[in-house]
Amino acid sequence: MSDGLNYSFLVKTFFTALSGVPTALMITIVALFIALPLGFMLALTRINRIPVLHRFAQVYVSFVRGTPVIVQIFIIYSSVPLVLTSFFKKFHIETNVYDINPIWYAFIVFSLNTTAILIEVFRSAISTVSKGQLEAAYSVGLTNVQAFRRIIIPQTLVVALPNICTATVNLIKATSLGYAMSLQEITLRAKVAANVGYNYVEAYIDIFLVYLILCSLVEYLFKIYEKRLRKYKAANA
Amino acid sequence: MLEIKNIHKSFGKNEILKGVDLRIDKGDVVVILGPSGSGKTTLLRCINFLEKADQGHAIFGAADVNLKTASKKQIHDIRQKVAFVFQNYNLFNNKTALENVTEGLIIGRRVPKAEAIEIGKKALDKVGLSEKYHSYPIELSGGQQQRVGIARAVALNPDIILFDEPTSALDPELVGEVLTVMKNIAKEGTTMLVVTHEMSFAKDVANRVVFMDGGVIVEEGSPKEIFTNPKEERTQQFLRRVLPEDYIFYI
Lengths: 237, 251
Hints:
Number of helices of chain B: 9
Helix content of chain B: 25-40%
Largest sheet of chain A: none
CATH topology of the domain at 22-184 in chain A: MetI-like fold
Radius of gyration of chain B: 18 Å
Number of strands of chain A: 0
Distance between the termini of chain A: 66 Å
Shape of chain B: globular
CATH architecture of the domain at 22-184 in chain A: Orthogonal Bundle
Radius of gyration of chain A: 22 Å
Strand content of chain A: under 5%
Strand order of the largest sheet of chain B: 6-7-8-3-9-10
Order of helices and strands of chain B: EEEHEEHEHHHEHEHEEHH
Shape of chain A: flat
Number of helices of chain A: 9
Structural class of chain B: alpha/beta
Structural class of chain A: mainly alpha
CATH class of the domain at 22-184 in chain A: Mainly Alpha
CATH superfamily of the domain at 22-184 in chain A: MetI-like
Largest interface: A-B, 23 and 28 residues
Oligomer: heterodimer
């Protein structure tokens, strides 16, 4: 059965695995789209000790940080349909809950997860920007929104970017756990292909390669962006 | 032009300002002296609403603002008229010198970009930094950064500029260049309220000197009065400590 690797299968399955990349990317992008602003704002509530909200943020982070992602997936995947079913019944919506594409649950889980991570990323990044920057912004007449958009956030971003890169790459990798929800992403597709002829080794190599290439690409993009932002920190006249 | 009445400020249990009244007229260059902890910096920061006073009024021209209950709009209006120069410069690190100076104009006051750049360049020329329009703060020395900070305040054309120990964070060699700039803008008639330990500035440039201690104004007068004829014991004690030993004053 095993005379070395089945190279034609290796190549074919590589492209099968690749077909799951759009799903992984879509989940990543949606999660980041929600988590970046939400994480930033909740980080601010922690720094400024806004009553109620800062405690909520603190507890929220502990919950997400303290539980495995796969368990978070199990919980969302089993509880949200129940909630939706009663919701649909109440408002007489005809949709069958079990027809909902699991990607929607993936959006929920990974947005919640990434938000928690980013709260901590931004909390430490914002604290590196000295308070005087904000005071100077106020004294030249900038509003809060203007001060943050033009002065604070750019400086926060430079510091936060390496950690945001880590969070993004981790997010991409974590989407592989979506197979537990039968989510048609990289891991599941390749595994299914492997089931046919029991070519698991080849499939796993392919999955491994796809993630590696994808994550390396993302890292590279972050590196370029970071270089651009750092211009003012080590400027050459 | 600006009158501060009965300002009180506590931080927790510490009462820092215990009822301060101060009046500043147009063209005044007022220097506030005093030991550390006397409330000088807090007074300045309360005027600019960087701290919120517990009690007190600021009468600015026709407007009487309650410092504790001031609305966002009132605060915004006052900040348009009052500029601040910080001890630690607080230049926007991610902006060039010129961008630092024009930021308040373009974004805060909606001045058209071209006009703001003209004003900005003139302000930077005035403080002697014509070569450094496009330098980032990290490329500038402390003295240069502070001069950009002063240009930033001047460009806003405020009614009064507050200086919070502008030279305290500078190396001694760089203090001179900043004091020269301040002297120049004082000569042009800018109204200035300066907290400083630089006695030479107080003696040569100020037209009024205020001595604060323990959260109150102990004595105020012209530089001559304060430096040669201090009336209060506390003033004399302070001056004896900070002035050269052979300085003679008449009691």
